[in-house]
Amino acid sequence: MFYKPEDGHGLPHNPFNSIVTPRPIGWISTRGADGRDNLAPYSFFNAVAYVPPQVMFSSTSAKEDRGDTKDSVANIRETGVFCVNIVEYEMRDAMNKTSGPWDRATDEFELATLAKAECDTIACSRVAAAPANLECKRTQIVQLPGEANFAVFGEVIGVHMRDDCMVDGMFDVLRYNPLTRLGYQDYSVIREKFSLKRPGE
């Protein structure tokens, strides 16, 4: 089939998220100017540059108590920093719990019974047991076409890697099995990998 998004797809559910898959999940922790911690997952997330290392995530909806956006973007506007916590399969239920439309006073770390650790380079909490954490300073927030669509870009200025995920000096994703987002209510998990050399390598 073919459809133009502006005309609608005529299907029971939007297929877009099922086409662009799998997507890594950025479990974004922030702290507001009021000192409250927030934790929420975003599957519009990825690394975007090596030098300096940079990441991005997009928020695509809003909450009544945050005006034109959600807690994560609102907090980053206030403080200029955030942390990306990598989600492993074993943390799937905790991650899912933090995805709810909780009010701004809710601390999702406490809600999901997740231990916090303080970041080293920024004033923000991180998921202590996550396989890796990327401490970021905001570089820009871009308003995208459409209501409540914001892309947040950040430079990674601190990296935590869990010791049990290191094998022969390399960060091994099979030691923790990354959780990935598919479409609808579906997820997947990375349990195998293979290598390919680029031409000329």
From TrEMBL:
<feature type="domain" description="Flavin reductase like">
    <location>
        <begin position="18"/>
        <end position="173"/>
    </location>
</feature>
<protein>
    <submittedName>
        <fullName>NADH-FMN oxidoreductase RutF, flavin reductase (DIM6/NTAB) family</fullName>
    </submittedName>
</protein>
<dbReference type="GO" id="GO:0010181">
    <property type="term" value="F:FMN binding"/>
</dbReference>
<dbReference type="Pfam" id="PF01613">
    <property type="entry name" value="Flavin_Reduct"/>
</dbReference>
<dbReference type="InterPro" id="IPR012349">
    <property type="entry name" value="Split_barrel_FMN-bd"/>
</dbReference>
<dbReference type="InterPro" id="IPR002563">
    <property type="entry name" value="Flavin_Rdtase-like_dom"/>
</dbReference>
<dbReference type="GO" id="GO:0016646">
    <property type="term" value="F:oxidoreductase activity, acting on the CH-NH group of donors, NAD or NADP as acceptor"/>
</dbReference>
